[in-house]
Amino acid sequence: MKLEFDANLCRGHGRCYTLAEDLLEEDDEGYVTARGQIVDVPPDQVEDARNAAGSCPERAITILED
């Protein structure tokens, strides 16, 4: 599984960051950035990734199934 992050859609709500801190990081202005535009999700973080994607009101995070 992978997460695709669209920084152009992000409005800085921060919901996803709080649910998947190991996959996403916050910039100096409070916007969430991905560690790479497409992030490989380790098996033990799949649930966090799904929760983070589902929490984004802007739909800036897309789940890509392998």
From TrEMBL:
<keyword id="KW-0003">3Fe-4S</keyword>
<dbReference type="GO" id="GO:0051538">
    <property type="term" value="F:3 iron, 4 sulfur cluster binding"/>
</dbReference>
<keyword id="KW-0479">Metal-binding</keyword>
<protein>
    <submittedName>
        <fullName>Ferredoxin</fullName>
    </submittedName>
</protein>
<dbReference type="GO" id="GO:0046872">
    <property type="term" value="F:metal ion binding"/>
</dbReference>
<keyword id="KW-0249">Electron transport</keyword>
<dbReference type="Pfam" id="PF13459">
    <property type="entry name" value="Fer4_15"/>
</dbReference>
<keyword id="KW-0408">Iron</keyword>
<dbReference type="InterPro" id="IPR051269">
    <property type="entry name" value="Fe-S_cluster_ET"/>
</dbReference>
<keyword id="KW-0813">Transport</keyword>
<keyword id="KW-0411">Iron-sulfur</keyword>
